[in-house]
Each structure stands twice: as structure tokens, then as C-alpha cells.
## 1
Amino acid sequence: MDDPNWQPRIVAFFCNWCTYTAADLAGVSRIKYAPNIRVIRLMCSGRVDPQFILAALAQGADGVLIGGCHIGDCHYSEGNLKTLRRFQLLKRMLRDMGIEEQRVRLEWISASEGDKVRSVVDDMVGQLRALGPLGMPKRFEDWDRELNGLEAEVNAAQEPAGGAKPEAVHA
Amino acid sequence: MIYSYFPGCSLKGLGRAYEESLLPVMRHLGVELVELEDWNCCGATAYMSVDERKACVLAARNLAIAEKAGPHDLVTPCSACYLVLNKTKHQLHESEPMRATVQRALGTAGLTYGGNTPVRHPLDVLVHDVGLDVVKEKVVRPLKGLKVAPYYGCQVVRPYATFDDAWNPTTMDRLLTALGAEVVDYPLKTKCCGASLTGTLPEAGLRLTYILLKEAIRRGADVVATICPLCQFNLDAYHDKLAKRWGAVRIPTVYITQLMGLAFGLPAEELGLNRCFVPMKPLPAAPEPARA
Amino acid sequence: MHDTSNNGDVRIGFYICHCGHNIASMVDCAAVAEYIGRLPGVAVSRDYKYMCSDPGQALIGQDIRDHGLNRVVVASCSPLLHEHTFRNAVEAGGLNPFFFQMVNIREHDSWVHTDRADATEKAKALAHAAVRRVRFHRALQTTKVPIHPDVLVVGGGIAGIHAALTLANGGKKVFLVEREPSIGGHMAKFDKTFPTLDCAACILTPKMSAVRAHKNITLWTYSDVEKVEGYVGNYTVTVRRRPRYINEELCVGCQECIKACIYKEAKFPDEFNVGLSKRKPIYIPFPQAVPQVVVIDPERCLQIKSGKCKRTCIEACADRQAIDFTQKEETVQIKVGNIILATGFKLFDAKRIPQYGYGRYPNVVTSLELERLVTSSGPTGGELVMRNGGTPRSVGFILCVGSRDFRTNRWCSRTCCMHSMKLAQLVREHTGADVTIFYLDIRAPGKGCEEFYDKSLKDGIQFVRGRVAEVTDWALTPEEEGKLVIRAEDTLAGVVRRIPVDMIVLAVGMEPHADVQQVRRLFNMSCGTEGWFLEKHPKLAPVSTFTDGVFIAGCCQGPKDIPDSIAQAGAAAAEAMALIDRGFIEQEPNTAYVTEEDCSGCKSCVPLCPYTAIGFDDAKQKAVINAALCKGCGTCVAACPSGSIRQHLFEDDEIFSEIEGVLTHG
């Protein structure tokens, strides 16, 4: 399980008007930062469906970063307020699931804050390195195996029939 | 009011007139200064340039002792001690490694540094804690007609301008006004007096001292008021040399606390005024107290 | 989970651009192309030097035809730069332009990472995601949004004036809103302009009059913009017109009322003369004010404050009856298609650098105060007199006051070197005084400006290179008695100098206005870190903003001189005119839509839309989205519990596939 070559992988959802532009600015300014993030462009942070975050974590992301405009500056007036609301609720869910708080992060980064992109990414990568991999896909396999084993045990105790494989668990 | 008190080496030596005037004045105002037990030299400005780590440990020991002594603010009258102690606090706040080193060193003496004791200058305490209204009340002999040039020196407001403006401080000005004195407009109030250069590089250091005194006279001051023992010494002790090199600039330099003592009617002999090289002209006799 | 209805037989063309060295130096483009080429559905995979070039774009078209491509992915720079370019190329090749996806491997990869292996892996992951996503793209059409032909120009300085005249001359109706009682801005306060030493008023006032006279311009001074609603092509703006207590239609500008005012002496600081002179409560800002209408200051007028005044002004106005103390604030709503902001700048407050003695020593003045002193229509009739009387025989100019200074403002204010030299020449002309300019660098980039610098040197103006440490009145030698001494390190000579002068002029820098954050929020715009309005691209789009239909011009975008302000004003007017003359704007088809059969009528979406684009059909009990109002943020899409609201271009399946793509690659 301990892969010495493991590097944290972060899936980022950036809003087009502020954070994506800030990341572009960081590029134009040749500001260097950790290569661990993969940006998915959306028009507004309000488009971020909590299911996206869960899908990313389930499929192997060690962290998810959401970037939007500062409160009061949303290009679409209030989209980022909805994001904030959803994020607060999602945080509680994630905590209950045992997922560390540092793994899902919401940042307000305005179009002129190229350097903030760098500092947030580097900081998040540092934190994730300390936490270690989330390792969800592997964990799903482990849990499936555990359940299969359990089912086999139960069936063996009751009838000598091999049950059908339980459905694979998807996000 | 109670404060812990760090006199520093100067106030027990060359600058003893400062302590001699500070303690009775503070007592008169209801402020108790409790001297720290077993304090050590703060290292002054010199040690920091020689070995920063050792200098920090040296200064931090005093801060640790002060913390142990009680929850009071630490008052330190010497500007260099004031600056060094504050600088040390700053360093320890900013630098994790430095803080770790200092804790380790202090630990060997059973001390620990918490960083919670504010280091204050008596001028700050007088104006902001005691308050000018209280000071005014205690004045029995207003310093009427006495023209004073307030000289702050460079270390009290730079680089940390915590209780007054870095460019144009006015706490001492206001204090002098509360004592009834006439404050002279003195643009050189924060310019360097020459500090240790008066000894090591006199051509440079004494020249700065000369400029300060010359301008004070030019502005019509009768006396210069200071808050730092080295400033007082530089401005007071080299008049022969100054006269020989550039010209006579005989104007007395005293501590603000000595002027306060005079205004409060405390006996002049007990304020250390006899220790000045250039004596201050005695004030006219105190006016008769008003008949009830 | 994934809607594979469009999956069918996808034939994807993948192109990775070298962008010369920009991408290729850090990303192994050939390796990425090779990797992508092996993925299912990828029919063509190429790497090329410059995809955005003509041959690059033609390559796409060629491949679409030759290989029957029905999806295209380009990995190159930021979509914010070239998404449009490539969509057009795809369309030119015969394919719906929205069957295209772009991957940012320059701004987000090669330019920000330092390890070639990492950068290449990232490029592969991002490209993989795009290849997965593009399968789910659907054919879409842009919508045309009509543009209202009228334009709002905010700010009546030289930039706003020029923009308004350009548009008006082009036959467009312009509303010019200015918060001061007269247009003219800072330029109206200048004496002469560099490098030609043209009289500022002489070149400005004809333009001001033209604004007044132009039938296409509605001029509202003493007014503010209160609210802006709508979007490009369809803005509804609420303008608040403050009461001058004068009927603009009736006042002829004779100023008899000012003469007759109950205040025999002018008592209040005159704003136009930056406090160097006084005015009465009833005043005209300056003689050439446009409109030539008097204004009453409600804070100072006796009648307005106490109700008890002889009102000699009304008497003096006689039969014209232009004075109206009952005038109230008026709110007007207008509809415009485009907005140009030309709100200008404010000057740095020199009191923030107390070492220079401004406010302490009477003979330390700012550059603008000196302009008023040397101008013949100024408070001293053009006589350069010091505040405590007399003509200066020596003047020192201190440059970069509040500019190029990490303690106050870091930027260069661009015009101060030139206007200081101009003022220096004027001072010498007026008084023959010795002039010394203390500078860090002399910046004289415009046409004729370097020659102006030469002339200044030949005129005998002294230049000392070094940031001034302080201005003081303490004299070290008899020559310094009664003077102000400038202490500076003369870095070229390698000495610290004390230079005594009679008068000091501080070249104060330019700053954004104090209320710039409120203003930019009004127009849904951003400011840069320094507070200047943010342009879309500092090189390629200096007058556009990220908000379509809102343009910026002049110093509000950053410090600049008059020729550059006018150039930007013309540019902004041209951008607006281009939109208006075309008649429509093509809206990105990224709107939300409801799949009726899945909608359960829960109404969670209805209150979420700031544009009130979501309605509810009571008969059908389903949510309905008005595509014309939808701006495409996607907030309702994320909120919809049944997933019946979807977003074109940002469908769930598209995004889920992108997530899968970045992670399953590795």
C-alpha cells in the first residue's frame, strides 16, 4: 500500500471568470507551483455539484479544490454564495464518512490573484502529502472483497450454494 | 498600578539620575515599579550585531523572568533596552528555529519564554496608562516660562512605532505641556545623538550631538528633555570637546522625569539634577499654595 | 450513469501544439500525441508547431474532410485566448463548432511547472480527459442577442469626452454622466501640456463645447450612476441627478447671482483651485465650465441650511428665474447597450509621506497646486507666489512621491517625470528661479518627450539622482537660514547633499479613486490588485473588460498621459460601435434547460436564479427556463435534485467524463 512514488492528485474545479483566469495569469507570469492539480473549467463555482466532488474522490483523487470569485464579486451575482452553502453541508457529510477536512477545499481567488493560485496549490499538496493517499478505488475493491468473503461465509453456514457476486459499488 | 521594572545597566551606572527621578515620580502618581529579581544585561544594540542567537537568549532571559514575576507589563526606561527587548520578542515571534533555540537555552535554567509580557516605555505608560489629566493634577509648580526641546532619540519610535508616530512623535510634547512648560518646535527630535560613536568615532558621533544642541538653542530652548540615558549622556558630557571643535553649545539636557519631579514639587536634590555636567538653571521658587 | 446517446461512432481528431518553445520546451508533445493516438475513438493524433496559425487551422479542416472526423480536441494555450479561433476552424472544416474541446497545457502546465516528466504526465491526463469529454458534446447553435444602440459614458474627463464625441459623431446616442458640476476632469486644471506646451484649456474647451452642442449627447453633470441591471446589449441604468438648485435650461451663466450673494467675501475652499482660493456657496466651478450653469452648495448655502436668507441671488437673477430652492434629487432610468467607464484617477495624498513636510511647511506644494499657481486663470493670475508671499528664487521638485515606493504605491505613475519637467520649464519662464529636479529615473517615452528632456537640461534645470530623504527647515549653515533644505543622496556623485530652496513641488503619483471598489461592483467588473480597473488582456485587449459590453478608457485603467487616454477612449468607442453596428452579440450556448419529463415540480430551482430566468408553469407543474435571460452559470443545474435541469456545454456526463479522464490516466 505504501508506494514510494505516490504523489497527491488534486482535481480542481475553477470558475471561468475568476479562478481560471487567475491560473492563466499565474501562467503568464511564469509563477511556478506543484504539478499535482488537474483543472476542470466551469462557468461558475455554483455549477459544482457535490456529486462531482464525490466522484473525484471515489475515482482516486486525494483532494478536491474548488475555486470561485470572492463573495460579492461573482460574475453571476450570487453563484458563489450557493457554492459556499453546499460546501458547508458537504463538509459535514465528508467528516461523517471519515474523509479528512483538508482533502476538500474551497478558495476564493480573484482574476488578479495569480500568486494565490500558487500558494493554495502548494499548500494543499503539502497537506495532502502529510495525510497520505485517500486510495478510494483500492478501498472499494477491499470492501467488495470483504463483503464477498462475508457473504460466502454466511452462505457456507446456511447452504452450500455460491451466491451471485454482489453489485460493484460505484460512486 | 503595578508594573515589573527592568532598569538595565545604564540606570544603575552612568544614567542613575534617570532611576533616581523615575521612581519617586511614578510613586507620586500611584504607580509601583517592582524591579525584576536577578535581571541581566540586555546586550544592548551591540550584541545583536555580534551574535544574534546569543543576544536573543540573553534578552529573552529577562522576558522569561518577567513572566515568572507576574502578569504585569514590563517597563524599561532605557531606549536601547526597550528596543532590544522588543526586537527579541519580534524575532521569537517570527522565527520558529530561533524560538526553539531560546527555549532550549532557557530550559537549562528552569525558565520558559511565553511571549506574553508586553515591554513598555515609561513615556508610554505615563501618557496612555496614567493619563495626562492625572499628571496635570499633581503639578504644584507649573514649569511656566521654561522652554523645552523634546528629544526622543531614534530608538523609541524606530523601527517599532508602537505608542507614537515614527516621524513626528508627540507624547513627550504633550506631557511637557501638561507640566506647564512651553514646548519648542524641534524638528530634530528623532535624529540620532551619535550613540556609541561619540566614543568610538568622535568625529562622526560628536558632530551629530553638536547639531542637536545647536538647533535646540537656535529654536529658543532653555533645556533639552530626554528619555534615554545614552542620549542624555551624549548631549550633556562633551561640551568642552564640542566647544573646541565647533563652538559652544551650552544648553542643559535633563531627563523628562526630572522635569516632572520639579513640577510635582519634589525636592530637586532628590532628582539627581546635581549629576548633570551642564547644570540646569534652578526654577523660581514654587508659588504659594492657594489659600483654601 | 453516463448518457451515451451521442457516443455512436466518434472519430476524434487530437492536436497538440508546440507553441514554438512555449509548450514544447516543457511538454513532450510527440509522446502525448502518441499516447492519445492509442485511445479508443481517436482517429487522428498530431503534434504541430503552431495550431492557431493559418496552416494549423487548415490542418483541422483537412483532417475533418479526409478522416471523417466528428470531434476535435486541441491541446495548446488557454481557451480564454483561442477557444473561439479553433471553434471557427472546426466550423470552417464543416463540423458544428461545439464538437470541439480545448486543453490548456500552456498557462496551466508548461509555463508553471519545472519538471518535464511531471508536465508531460499532466498534459497526458488533461488531454485524456478532454478526449473522454468530447464524446458527449452535442451540436449547438449560438444565439443572437440584439444590441441597444445607445451608449453610456461614465466620467467627463478628456477620455470620456473623446469617447462620447467619437460615438456621437458616428450617429450613436450617448449619455455622458459626470459627478462634478462640470466636465473637463483633471485636464481642465492644467496650464500647459507636455511636450508641445499647448495651452490645456485651449485644446480642451472646444471639445467640451462640442459635447454641449452635440445633438446626440445627453450631458448629465452633478450626477452619479446608482444602479446597473441587465447584460451586454441590454443594460438598464439608474442615474441619480443631484440638485444644483438651478434650472439648467434657464440659467445663462451670467453669474450675477454669485456677485449678489449674501456672502460678500468668498469663504469656502475652492475645489477647482485645489483649496488655493475661496468660493461662495453659489459658484461656477471655473470660467469655461460646461454646462455654463451655476451651482449651489447645499452644505454651505444659508438659505438651504437655515431657511433664513435675503436671497439676493434670486433678485439678481431677475426675470430669468433660474434659481429654484425647491429642486429635488431626480432619478432617471435609461436603456443602453454598452457602457464606457472613464472615471479617471485621484492624486496621492502627500501627507502620507510626512518626511516631505506637506501640510507642515507652507511652501511645500503638490504638482497640481503648482499648475494652478502658474496658470493665468488661476488664483494668483499666473504669478508664482509662495504661500507666505514673495517669488521663489529657487525651487526643488521631488519626483516619485507615492510612486515606485514599496511603502506607499509600487507602480510608476508614468506622467510625473514629464509634467515635472514641464512645470520646471514654466517656473523658469515665469520667475527665472533656479530649479533642481530630484529623480530616481527620468522616464520620457512619448513622442517629443526625450527632446523635451534635452530642452530641460539646456534650459539650465539641475537634475540630482536620488530619492529625497527629507525636507527640513533646520539650517546647518547661514545660507540655509529661512529656506527649506532638501536632503538627498546624490547617487551619481556619491555624496549626501543638502540643497536649500525657497519652494518645493511634490510630484504626487496617481491612484485609483477612493470608491473604486463600489464603482466596479456596480458594473460587475473586477479591479486589479492595485485598484485600477481590470482589462481583459493587458496586451491584446486593454480597453475591454471581462464583462461584455463594459469598456474602460483613460487613467481608470492605469496611469497614462493625455494622448494615451484619448487613444484608449477612441478604442473603447470603436469597440462599442463594432458591437452596435453589427447589431447583435453571439451568446455562448451554455444556457440551462429543463428536461420536462424528469422535472418533479419541486421548485428548488426557482429562487436560485439572479436573472429570474427560471419560471414555473402552474398548469404543467414544471420549471421553465427562459433561455434569453439565462446567463449560463449552472447554479440551478447543480441544485436540481432530480437532475432534470441540464446545461449545454457543461452537461453532467461531460464533466463526469472529464473527472474520470484526469484520474484514470494517472
## 2
Amino acid sequence: MKILVPVKRVVDYNVKVRVKSDGTGVDIANVKMSMNPFDEIAVEEAVRLKEKGFATEVIAVSCGVTQCQETLRTAMAIGADRAILVETTEELQPLAVAKLLKALVDKEQPGLIILGKQAIDDDCNQTGQMLAALADLPQATFASKVEVVDGKAQVTREIDGGLEILSITMPAVITTDLRLNEPRYVTLPNIMKAKKKQLDIFKPEDLGVDVSPRITTLKVSEPPKRSAGIKVPDVATLVDKLKNTAKVIS
Amino acid sequence: MSALVIAEHDNASIKGATLNTITAAVACGGDVHVLVAGHNASAAAQAASQIAGVSKVIHADSEVFAHALAENVAAQVLSIAANYTHILFPATAGGKNVSPRVAAKLDVAQLSDVTLVLSADTFERPIYAGNAIATVQSTDALQVLTIRSTNFEAALTSSQAAPIELLGHIDEQGLTICKGQETVKSSRPELTAAKVIVSGGRGLGTAEQYKSILEPLADKMGAAMGASRAAVDAGYVPNDYQVGQTGKIVAPGLYIAVGISGAIQHLAGMKDSKIIVAINKDPEAPIFAVADYGLVADLFTAVPELVQELS
């Protein structure tokens, strides 16, 4: 069984982005870029499934600019066997990415597609579910545990108020939540090995997919600032302020 | 123009986030219908019909909705989608699971976590963990939206009940089986609906201390309990306690952050709270930059003292 792992190149999670003064977007020039953290968890999970003998090949996929190759090399350093870049400079929205991935699912016929539940730049939380819909596959989102039992994927999901266990027929789409695993540290020998692994490049046209954006961003602005309040010297003052000034407790 | 709101419910009652989503649907202009897809969910449908702003409740009842599986709920929504210009889900774990499936099948984009409706096709939504707000316009004829409940008022109860229409249910899609749910029955209020939240971070040190230090305070205040991602990562509490960019977005009247440094990801989930209190021993912690009242103190003495003071 093959596992396809879509990964996204995003602004590193430690970077505090700044809104451009002309309101056209956020400034990402000269900002550190990394693999979306949830996708890193997805790569780790796929590699673990291969190490346990459930999968034969892990294929990392990224859609975007040339530099996404770095993200794919990272995925291969974690343990993905090969990679595919769908290269375009067009702004890619989740529906377009889902269509590109659908075309690759048709081509590669993976048993599982594992990807992050959400990218930390656009915070959309859509791509996995959209891919599942387009490919007519079952889905298990927000996974905190993945097992293969009797030829089916058994996935524990994070839901409001607790957990849910689903048994899904493969092929299937799984999106990762943060407690699924802790990705391994990438070692130097594995980074060197990753450089020699196969990386194929396609254009959206090669896959017959129209990636035109459906949503126009009219403006990007700073959120309203919350100003810092006061420091209180002790607990008694705190309680007094909450009771008599803020009036949030009685 | 008309909007369809997909209700979140437990078959007996309508969950709070649905009420805020109905307010957003009203703001889109046009009629608002509510879909209650459930199993023995007449009571929920009845409750939905009593919500102000709702002109019709559509009730689909079948065993196939017993676990609200995304495949089945999406198929039911798609069966009537053609009648609407807007389809809205609450941006809860349940809504987020189903909504993109509906959008993709309709070949339309989805707008996630909408915080403001500017017109029928133009909306505001946060990006980069709320560090920027995007004003976006959709070019699709039909809009699929998930609604961030903290940014919309809850719809009120109406004295006039809207009509309830029964809808034939779709067939079981059959690719997914729910083997069980483990939900924690808590006497505390739900995190996203609570008036007071007591939230703990890595400063608590262990799962036992999270419990022994914070529970008495939460009990005293009738508060819900939350946590930072660091505390979840460290295994102090389950993931559904998580407040932040990738967890729950909350806006209670009072948010008490204990031993939470205030990473961007956490602030994204709670900075719309009315009053924020921070208790942390590090005076430089970023949480103090958003706190109305900051107490630089060792939480292990300050919190018990606070409980004492409130008694």
C-alpha cells in the first residue's frame, strides 16, 4: 500500500507576521519558511506505518512555488521515499489544491492519504475533507491515533467533548491533530540521503486542473489591538478589581 | 436569496454555536432555514423552530445520522443545496468536518471561520492565527461558510414557531463505521459557552497539579476549564481543552490564564475575552501584554490564595 502525504510550505510557526502597510497582504519576504507543523505530523505517521509494515511506499506531495522542493526534501529526510511537486506561482486555494491532489490520487492509487488538519497560514481546515469529497473517499479528520485493523483504518478522532473511534474502508483520507505523534528529529545523514531521492515536477496543466482562485482578497488589515491593563500587587487587590472595577464576579 | 444553517445538536436540543450561526445567516440577507439531520431528533427540530430568525426547519431523521458521520451529513445537505445561496455551519469540530465536503462537491470555495458578514458575498476572516484579518469576496454563486461563534450574538427564542418540514433521508454511504465515542460528561459548562474560563499552561508542571491547583478555582467560580497547547502537548489534559489557533476559540466574560506564557497561538483563541487575568511568575511573559489584570506571582501560592479570597 502506498501512502500519499501532502505537505504545505508555510511561514514558520515562530514568526509573528506583519501586515503590509498597503493592506494587500502579509509581509513574507525574508521570513523563515517551514513545513506546516500538522503536515510534519502526517509525514511522521506515514513513515511509522511503513516501518510497522502496513505501507510499502510513502510519497510526499507539495503544490506551490519552486522553493516547496525544500519542504519536500524535509519530508524525505523524515522518511518519505519520493516526492512530487506540482509547481505553480498562482495563489493556490484549498479547492484548487484538493483538485490537484485528486489528480495525483488517480495516478498513484494510494491506500491512504494523510495530511495536516489545517495550515497555519490561511487557517482554512478544508483540503483533506475536500479531497475526500472529490475522490469519493471516506474521511477521518482530526486524528489522534491511527491503526490498521483487518484491512481497515481504525482512527481515533478528536471531537468536541471527547474522542470518537471510526473504522474506515481504505482508500481513505486522514487529517492529523497535534497529539497523533511527535515527529522525529531529522538527522544529517538522512538529510544527505533525502537529496538523492526522486522528486518529480508537474504543472497544474499536466494534471488537467484549473487552479484559478475563487476568492479575492480585497484587503488585509491588523486586528484590533488589545492594550495591556495593569499589574496588581497581590491576590486581594486582584479580587477587589474583579469585584468592584470590572464587576465580573460578585 | 436564502440561507441554510446546518444545526449542531444532540437530538434533544440545539447546541449553542448554532444560534450564533443563525445570526450570521440573517446577516447574509434572505430567508433562513435550519437543517436538523439526526436520529430521533424531533425534540431538536422543535427547539430549532423556536429560534428567532428561522423561517423553516427541515428535519431529516434516520439511523444514518446517529453518529453525525461527515459522509452522511454532507450527502443530506447536498440533496437540498440547490435551493440556497448560502450554506452555513458553525466552526466547531463537527461543522469543520462536514462543511468542506459539501463545498467541494458543489465545486465552490469555502470561507472558514467567518467573523463578520459585510454583504452577501463579502466577509471578514482571520488568517495567521488572528494576526491579520482578511476581507474576502467570493466569486462563486453559492457561498459555503463556517461561522466563528464568538463574533456573532446568539439568536434569541421566538414566540412564534417556524414550520417543520420532514425530508426524506439519504442512504447510508457505508464506507465509515463509528465504533464508539468517549465523551466526558462534565458538570462544568462547555468551554465555548462558558462565562468564566480557568485555563492552565505548562507552568502547572504536571497533570496532577493542573487538577489539584485549578479545579478548586474552577469549582468556586462555576468555570469551564481550558489549557494552552503546551499543556496539551505535555499531556496534562485532553486536546479538547485546548484554547488557541488550532483548538477552541473562546470569548468569555472572564478568562483566567494560569501559568500560561501567552504564545501567539494561544492568544489567537482567547484575546476576544472581555476581561483577561494572567497569573505568571515571569514578569516578561507575553500574556501580560493582553491581560487586563496581571499578577506576577508563583501560581502555586497565588491560586490557592485566590480560592481562599473568593470564599
